[in-house]
Design a protein that fits this description.
alpha/beta; two-stranded parallel ribbon; 21% strand
């Protein structure tokens, strides 16, 4: 039942990976290791990506990204992530990127980090617009795909992957509380310790 409660957020990453097309043997970059980013990492690995790079700054989430299957963790505060990804791909860039943060600076980064003809899938929810040079698309044949939420078919796909162990719910569950504690140990905990929490399971008894 705990795994079932996470089908909804996992379905967002599942749909994003589905829209990207075949990832078999490809190098994938996932920007952000929150709920959606971690789910996207697992779905990309389940889809056959050979290398999954997680871009994250929070120490706790870096560990979760590794637990969810990320092969390489890069911190943009510690290195030039575009240069590092190009170095590991022979100078070309990643095949596919998934922007799972929703920040004005990470959307252009998702495009910069992929190779010519690569795909950037924009999954995050944005509160402000980004400044973007569209020649970085027309001059490189890069493709940008936007996606929001999921369909009922994505729920079934996630359920199947959970049942076979290709997706894991446990790393996403960072707390378990009773309904009576939902304010102090639920909402307030998520607000005050955002970097160390992903999903808190609430039970009525």
């Amino acid at each position: 039942m705990e795994a079932a409660s996470l089908i909804e957020p996992l379905a967002t990453g599942f749909k994003a990976v589905r829209l990207a097309g075949s990832l078999l043997g490809q190098t994938v970059v996932v920007l952000g290791a929150g709920t959606i980013g971690l789910g996207t990492i697992m779905c990309a690995k389940a889809a056959g990506a050979s290398t999954v790079v997680s871009i994250e700054t929070a120490a706790a989430r870096k560990e979760l990204a590794k637990e969810c299957g990320a092969d390489i963790i890069l911190d943009p505060l510690e290195c030039d992530v575009v240069a590092e990804v190009k170095k590991m791909t022979g100078g070309s860039g990643a095949d596919v990127s998934f922007e799972c943060i929703g920040h004005k600076d990470t959307a252009p980064l998702a495009v910069d980090i992929i190779r010519n003809n690569g795909k950037a899938v924009i999954v995050g929810i944005f509160e402000e617009p980004s400044s973007f040079n569209f020649f970085s698309l027309s001059g490189t044949d890069k493709v940008v795909i936007g996606t929001l939420a999921y369909t009922i078919d994505d729920f079934q796909g996630v359920a199947n992957l959970l049942a076979t162990g290709q997706l894991k719910a446990a790393p996403l569950i960072t707390g378990k509380i009773k309904l009576d504690d939902i304010v102090e140990k639920g909402f307030e905990e998520l607000v005050n310790n955002k970097a160390t929490n992903i999903k808190i399971i609430v039970t009525p008894f």
